[in-house]
Amino acid sequence: MELVPAGPDVDNRAVLEHGNILYFPPAPGGAGFPIPSAVLDALTGTTQDARAIHKNIAYKPNKDAVSGLVDKSQTVATRDAMRDYSGRALKFLATILPEYAAMWKVDYASFRSIEERGRQLPLTKRNDLLHVDAFPTRPVFGDLILRCFTNVSPSQKREWLTSDPFPLLAEREARNAGLEGYAAKSGSAVESARRAAWRALHAAGVPLVDRSPYDSFMLHFHDWMKANADYQKNCPKYRFDLPPGSTWLVFTDVVPHAVLGGRLAMEQTVIVSRKSMKDPSLAPASILERMAGRNLTS
Ligand code: SIN
Ligand code: FE
Predict the structure, then answer these.
(1) Which of 71, 133, 156, 231 is 20 to 30 A from residue 112's alpha carbon, by CA?
(2) Tens of pLDDT along 187-197?
(3) Running DSSP on this structure, what letter comes out for residue 57?
(4) Domain count within the chain
């Protein structure tokens, strides 16, 4: 995997789908999209309680609301700044990835205001351990998690570590992580009954998440990777320093990633439909379905 600078001859979808980082250097000249200095000032003045249960400050575009702030007096300024970032990022993404934008689901934006080096978090929430992303509350049913990051720090680089992307990761580790068990449940009578009951309860207003076997496996895989000292120690590693002002895009369920240092990053997530990929066979769900010999996403 590599960091690929964007440019006129670059096929953005192919770069991302093959598990690379699509990179936009800082201004002048190479910035992905400009962020007004008033917005940057609002963000750098934002504080977040390191003890908060929220890992980051979240902005939900559909509700125009922020969560995760401790100092509530900052809510309006932070929300306005995050709305601005979210809007610019989505417009930018739609310009450079029109095929994805035609079908994507807009997810949350986040603001990562806490220094990552030395951050104390429970194992499964640690950002400094390599992992692929999966959302407990927002199953994707085989679609993909695309994230646009911008380092909004005026002075500090953001230090990333990555490893080989999903095709190699799955080949080496998916069976060790118990893929067969998740696949065996898929389509079984017990699993179908459980899903039906789940859907009925959900329809009745009980807040339950109906996830596919793929989503269950990916949630498990996220934790399994973080807990696997052998994987963390021995997997191939690639280091990237993302300078202040730079923007980078990556499928975070395709590319194992960790952040080792840096503070003040913005991020916007979109859920990309597997159908809108240039090569849908590269989706993590497609890879796992081939390995398991069955559908894992309905
Ligand atoms: C992550 O998505 O795991 C952390 C990446 C970052 O905040 O830079
Ligand atoms: Fe992550």
Answers:
(1) 231
(2) 788 888 888 88
(3) E
(4) 1
Let me know: does 113 contact 264? Beta carbons within 8 Å: yes
- Per the domain annotation, does 298 fall within a domain? no
pTM of the model: 0.94
Tokens of 189: 């009578």
Note residues around ion ligand 2 (Cβ under 5 angstroms): 133
Domain extent at residue 186: 3-292
Instruction: Give the position, in ligand 1's atom list, of the atom nearest the Cα of 127.
Output: 3
Is 257 touching ligand 1 by the criterion CB < 6 Å? yes
Residue with the smallest CA separation from ligand 1 atom 8 is 259
**pLDDT the model gives residue 56:** 85
CA of 127 to the centre of ligand 1 (A): 6
Q: With respect to residue 286, please indicate whether it lies within any of the assigned structural domains.
A: yes
Tell me: pLDDT of 9 over 70: yes
Residue 253 lies in a domain: yes
CA–CA dist 239, 257 (Å, integer): 10
Q: What is the pLDDT of residues 133-174, one digit of tens each?
A: 999 999 999 999 999 999 999 999 999 999 999 999 999 999
Answer yes or no: is 36 within a domain: yes
Mutation test of ligand 1: which of 125, 127, 221, 263 has the most ligand atoms closer than 8 Å to its C-beta?
127
Residue 284: CA count within 13 A, CB half-sphere:
33
